[in-house]
């Protein structure tokens, strides 16, 4: 595999932060835009803000929720600076606010709530939304297919590409099709999509698929060099947070994946082909974490679209651990997505 393809899945490098002070951080590398898009990938902002805030909380605090707004499109040619503001340090909860700047302008903000790791002694009520049939299951090959082969057959094959090119300029440049395929084949996320993912003529109010993160992320809480810190000094603030040394990196990786193939799926709910938008940006992003997300296992997600109106589209996702069948996170996102008239898209496709 070429170095450039290997770099596509190097999440640690993509998100790496350099400390400028105990509460401010700069990105080491430029914040790339996703294929087919001009601005920085929203998942980079969400996950880097979470990573920056983790550098300011003790090892025994875990993210419980994150609420964020994309204020200005990120410039992929400029590095980002993150400032973490401490709003309150409680015994059980810590509140942080993170502000991201480019060219001295605020581009993104998130509020993150951390909760202390609890002892098991007090747990009065328990409920987990679960999918019992999911436990230990792999994606069924009759229903789901690896995304790059599906994309090559259903979107970028010569027969299909002319239809997509009719509804979107981004498919007129056939040379760039290999970038989409590379992103699916070598990117941070590996997908198993339903076979009608890219175009479904079926009336439905739910879409489901499987996703996992390719690079290894430890689930061992006291992994890496700082192992003794976790067991003996849980109140310490870590100096380095990597996929190999801190299980909380699973939250960071989850935040990254949670902004991908979420808003883009809106046409699925309207019996239209994916990618048929004229303009698409996410406005906000909210994550409730229910447990440590094991991002190297298949994550099963169900997406719904409760409302689309006046170019504002709300999408909600429920993410399940396929090993246990239990809910791991809930995500909501509102996007500003502009489509042409529905009958025009249908006439062209
Ligand atoms: C094919 C595969 C595509 C893959 C897509 C992957 C999607 C991944 C999801 C993401 O990561 S999105 C990235 C995270 N979200 C953002 O970066 C949004 C940041 N927020 C904003 O950009 C502004 O707050 C927002 C545009 C939502 C509102 O700003 P304004 O109230 O000033 O809106 P305005 O209508 O004036 O437009 C601002 C800019 O958007 C552009 N714009 C707005 N509506 C447009 C439209 N209909 N068509 C084309 N461009 C449009 C507009 O040209 C203008 O560009 P310039 O600043 O360069 O002049």
Structure description:
With 349 residues, this protein is of the alpha+beta class. The protein has one domain: Beta Barrel (Porin), CATH 2.40.160. Helix content is 21%, strand content 31%. The chain contains nine helices and 14 strands. Strands 1, 2, 3, 4, 5, 6, 7, 8, 9, 10, 11, 12, 13 and 14 form a 14-stranded antiparallel β-sheet that branches. Helix 3 runs antiparallel to helix 8 and helix 4 runs antiparallel to helix 6. The two termini are 36 Å apart. The model has no long low-confidence stretch (mean pLDDT 93). The structure holds decanoyl-CoA (MFK).
What's a concise summary of this model?
The chain has 349 residues and is an alpha+beta fold. It contains 9 helices and 14 strands.
Mean pLDDT: 93
Overall body shape: globular
What name goes with the CATH superfamily?
A: Acyl-CoA thioesterase, double hotdog domain
Major sheet description = 14 strands, antiparallel
Q: What class do helices, strands and sheet pairing give?
A: alpha+beta
The number of helical segments is 9
CATH top level assignment = Mainly Beta
Proportion of residues in β-strands? 25-35%
The CATH topology corresponds to Porin
- DSSP E strands, number: 14
CATH architecture label: Beta Barrel
Write the layout of secondary structure elements.
Elements: H1 3-7, H2 11-15, E1 17-21, E2 24-27, H3 42-54, E3 61-70, E4 81-89, E5 93-102, E6 105-116, E7 144-146, H4 147-154, H5 158-167, H6 177-186, E8 189-194, E9 207-213, H7 227-232, H8 249-257, E10 279-282, E11 284-289, E12 299-309, E13 312-321, E14 327-338, H9 342-348
Antiparallel strand pairs: 1-2, 2-4, 3-6, 3-11, 4-5, 5-6, 7-8, 8-9, 9-12, 10-14, 11-14, 12-13, 13-14
Helix pairs in contact: 3-8, 4-6
The chain binds decanoyl-CoA.
Decanoyl-CoA binds next to strand 10 and strand 14.
